[in-house]
Amino acid sequence: MPPARSRSPRRARTVVLFAYDGCQSLDVSGPLEVFNLANIRSGVVHYRIVIASPLGGEIRCNSGLCIAGTVALADVPRPVDTLLIVGGNEAGLRGVAKEAATLDQLRKLSQRARRYGSVCTGAFLLGAAGLIDGRRVTTHWDSCTTLAAMFPTADVIPDAIYVEDGALYTSAGITAAMDLALALVESDLGARLALSVARHLVIFLRRSGGQSQFSATLAAQAHASHRLRELLNWIVENPAADLTLPALATRANMSERSLTRHFRKATGESPAVFIESARLDRARSLLEETDWQIARLARECGFGSVDALQRTFVRRLDTTPREYRRRFAGASGATRT
Questions:
Q1: Half-sphere exposure of 243 toward its Cβ, with a 13 Å CA cutoff?
Q2: Residues 140, 252: one domain?
Q3: 137 and 143 Cβ atoms separated by less than 8 Å
C-alpha cells in the first residue's frame, strides 16, 4: 500500500542544498532523497527542499549530469532551517572559493539558519567562508590532511562519518551525506521515521565504525611505487601468509631497513600497521559475506586468535566482530555461504 498523500504541517522546514558546477551529484541527490522520503513516508511535508547555486539555473555536476532550475543563492526563500554545502571536484571548489560575494552570502545564510554544514569536500567552502575556525569538522578521508593544512585552527576529525559541533554539521565522503541527513531527520522527527526512510533506501540508520572501515588500504596503495604496490597487493590478497618483516623483505628483494623506509615514505605508516589494516579489511568482507565461525575467520585473516581479532575491531572500528556482522551481513547483496 503506498504512503498516504502528503499534507503540509503548519510550517515546513526549508532545507537548502548549495551546489555548483563541478559538484558531486550524489552529494546533492543523497540528502535530497532522504529528506524527500521523510515527507513521503510520513505523509506530511516536513521539508521544503531547495537546490541553490551561485547564480541559479542549470549546473553541471562533475559526472556530466545537469541539474536544472536551481535557485540563485540571493533568492533563497526565508526562513532557512538547514543549509548544506555539497562537495565537488577541485576546479568547482576553487571556482566558488574565489567568489567573494558567494562566500559572503553563504556566511550570512549560515548565520540565519538553525543549522548549517557541509557534505564531503564542501567543508573547504565552509573554511573559505571562515565558518570552521576553532570547530570540530570532518570531510572525505582522502582530503582530511589537506583540510587541516589549509585551515589549521579547525579540529579535523579524520575517522568520522559525520561530526556535530553545535549548529555546525559536517559529513565524510559522498554517501556519508545520507548518514548525516538521516541523523538530522531522526533529530527532527524521531527514530521511527528515520528508520523507515533508511529501510526504504536499503541503508543502515547508523553504521558502526568510522571512515577507516572504507579507506584502510586504499590510500597506501594509490601512493606507492610500482615495485612496492605489487607487494602491497600481495599482502592484501594473502593476509594469512607469513607477513613478518624478514619474509616481506625477502619477497621484495630488499633489506628489512630499506623495506621499512620505503613503506613509510610511500604510505606514511609501518609495514605492521598496513598488514593489520589489510587483515581487518578481509575480516570485514568475510563477516559481511559468509557465516563462518569467528575462530575460522580469525585464522583465515591472519589474526591467529579470536582475542586478537576482537581487540583489533574494538580499537580500530569501535565495535566487535559480532556486532559488525549483525549490522552489515548481507548488506552488499552477496550470497552467504
A1: 25
A2: no
A3: no
Q: Decide if 8 is inside a domain.
A: no
Helix (H) / strand (E) element for 83: namely strand 82-85
Of 217 and 228, the one with more pLDDT: 228
Residue 120 bears catalytic tag: yes
Least confident of 143-152, 189-198, 248-257, 327-336: 327-336
pTM of the model: 0.66
Active-site residue, selected from the candidate residues 23, 61, 66, 120 = 120
232 & 144 share domain: no
Q: Which of 170, 192, 207 is the last residue of a domain?
A: 207
- The number of residues making up the chain comes to 337
CATH number of residue 155's parent domain:
3.40.50.880
Q: How far is CA 236 from CA 180, 258, 274, in A?
A: 31, 21, 9
**Host domain of residue 181:** 13-207
Amino acid at 54: P
Is the Cβ–Cβ distance between 110 and 141 less than 8 Å? no
